[in-house]
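Researcher: I'd like a structural prediction for the single chain below. Treat it as a standalone chain; there are no partners to consider.
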Amino acid sequence: MSAARLRTLPLSVSGILVGSSYAFFENTFNLFLFIIALLTTVSYQVLSNFANDYGDGIKGADDNRSGPKRAVQSGLISRSSMKNAIIFLSVISIILTLYLVILAFGFFTKYFLFFVGLGGLAIFAAIKYTVGKFAYGYFGLGDFFVFVFFGIISVLGSNFLYGSSLNWFLLNPALTLGLLSVGVLNLNNMRDLESDDKSGKKTLAVFMGKKTAKVYHFILISAAIFLILTFQINLEIKSVVLNALLLLNVLGLAIHLFQVYNITNPLDYDKFLKIIALHAFFYSTIISLYFFKIIV
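Model: Treating it as a single chain, here is the predicted structure.
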């Protein structure tokens, strides 16, 4: 359960919530499809967390880390057991992906191969973040892949499953969730900057250095705040409650920027990972309440 890193799950399902709720708004929603989509994205996330634990563990990147101890590095789970768990979860993810795509488009139809390929790429990316000789997380590419998969593909891709069309209207929340997700990763990388640098794990934070990584974080969250406010204006929400909740979310993110700016001890970054992940989940929930017509 510790290796699964359950605190990351709200972030992984945020895009699915937004994309699926907008399908409901457009009368193309399918409850069973929604459930399978959630299960699929959770399987990707847990697979990624297990692979990350395994990859960093065998490469020594977790030996002197500042954050919580990892299962393989600490010896709680053996390398062989974690490897078996990764293989098992990969099979589960493949089965769920195939079932989801067939459910959405049918067998070998127009979009079948494309989305099977997209699912395969998601599984590959989940594993290759830290596993293997050319793990992209060790070359500063983690931020890019998180932005694409947790933002663009999660929102636009999940919505496409229902109506087989791209709704560019959702690009704004897709970018927002992508930025917030990268913000979570950047906090993690700033916390582990020194240990990552010593172990040869060249994250973007390592490449940029402490001061620039903070500026980068400020840009990420500030851009997300701008997009949230812009989307709120475009939606023309009449509900006082929803508007207040969105503004409260923005206020929380703004306060977060000041808190992060004043951090001097890398260990203090850790408590803000969950906060930003919850802000993203809170934002997606508010938007989903509007699209699901629960509060209008």
